[in-house]
Specification:
The protein is α/β, with parallel strands linked by helices. It contains six helices and four strands. It has a four-stranded mixed beta sheet with strand order 1-2-4-3. It is globular and about 45 Å long. The chain starts with a strand and ends in an 8-residue tail after the last helix.
């Protein structure tokens, strides 16, 4: 499984988890979803690269925490590639501090969130968001992390990842 996950640590300004931690979070999603592992890339970047990607693919001129790029094979084509996840280290670290969340818990949440997007989960509607959050909480709990949304729904605040 670990050889199927390409980890690219481009930005070293953040308190980036090591490659083994990232691979463990990825593996937990495959296990929870009961899916066979597929190849993917997790790229950790700085704010400049993330802002360029966010502008190009989402029309937003600012960095975001995580973006997911699922592979969309041509009709009739089979592939063992899942896609790419890009995480902006400085944004994730800053969010963890602002939201008073354990940094590694927030990092794990962003990787899990990005993985679920690769599998087609989304949060465009309340129903989709509830389903996705339930899976996120399940994976993160299995990894020993607390509920990343605890208290948000009551207060009206939201730190949902934007992917």
């Amino acid at each position: 499984m670990t050889d199927l996950v390409d980890i690219q640590l481009v930005d070293d300004s953040a308190k980036t988890p090591d490659a083994q931690q990232i691979r463990g979070w990825v593996a937990a999603v495959f296990t929870t979803l009961e899916r066979s592992p597929l190849a993917l890339t997790v790229r950790v970047v700085g704010e400049e690269e993330m802002a360029k990607l966010n502008r190009r693919y989402r029309g937003r001129d600012q960095p975001t925490n995580v973006l997911s790029f699922p592979i969309e094979p041509l009709p009739g084509m089979c592939t063992d590639l899942l896609g790419d996840i890009v995480v902006c280290g400085p944004v994730v670290d800053r969010e963890a501090a602002i939201q008073h969340k354990p940094p590694m818990g927030h990092w794990a949440h962003m990787v899990v969130h990005g993985m679920l997007h690769l599998f087609g989960y989304d949060h465009e509607s309340d129903q989709e968001a509830t389903a996705m959050e339930t899976l996120e909480k399940s994976v993160l709990e299995g990894l020993g992390f607390s509920d990343p949304y605890q208290g948000e729904h009551d207060s009206g605040a939201s730190s949902h990842a934007y992917t």
